[in-house]
User: What shape does this take?
Amino acid sequence: MSCRSTSQWFANLDNIKDNALSALEGVTFFPPACMPCYYGHLLLCLIHSLARNRLTSVVHSRSEWCISRQRVWGVPIPALYHIPTDTAVLTTPSLTHILEVLERKGVGYWWDGPVSEFVSPELAAQYGGDVEQTWRKGSDTMDVWFDSGTSWAMLPPPGEGQGRKHRADVCLEGSDQHRGWFQSQLLTAVSVAEGKRPDSPYGTLITHGMVLDEGGRKMSKSLGNVISPLTVINGGPVRILRVICIKVSNTHTEVCRTRRRSPLMVQTSFDFGQRRLNIGVTCPSAQQFSRKQLNL
Assistant: This one.
């Protein structure tokens, strides 16, 4: 395999980094604290740092964002290239003209339409020459994290008298999204904010954990180390799994580590605890239920 450097589009984050960190001050993070907990045949693992610290450290250490990708699918980056001078043009006037064309004919027209329709008369006069021979459309697509990061734009902005400060009340995802969706939403929202100090697009950020295999690795389809939900459902101990999830949420722990080689242990625990589960569901709080009724 040979590696080569290619030209890419980058977004400079230095000018919005401080505003992004300030916007996080108004966000409520959950879990607020974490602790290790051993529970029967399941190991509940420790989150090594608070969710707020994770996200703020990632934003603080980042200075640029490569927003271009070389894929055959995705949202196109509407850049024009002057072939004789190898000049990339992506300015407010050129973008305004291109958007007017795409609004009439659809985004797919960027790939199908002739370049002459996207070069404005002003731009053609500035550089001269035959437009079809001297210009080409860019083939780069936008980073998908930029696509998903702008999902907040689909929600109505908070207005006067609504009692809402943020577009989304709650944003929930896994702990790996501190470098992904949590961050991309924040950066895109802050970058287009006007006037006063920008707010975060979400009011509360909930981080859940990952399910690990017996080797401590995150279960993923690419690794093939997953347990099918149907295996758990058809195997019987569904109710005991629900109780474990309640326990996880109440102790603010991150992940359940399952022993794939020990389904009999889980089934035995389920049979042993079923009577206690039937009694425990009447307890006034899940915390009391998990503390006094479960002893698997």
About this structure: The radius of gyration is 26 Å. The first strand starts at residue 10 and ends at 12. Residues 226-296 form one domain.
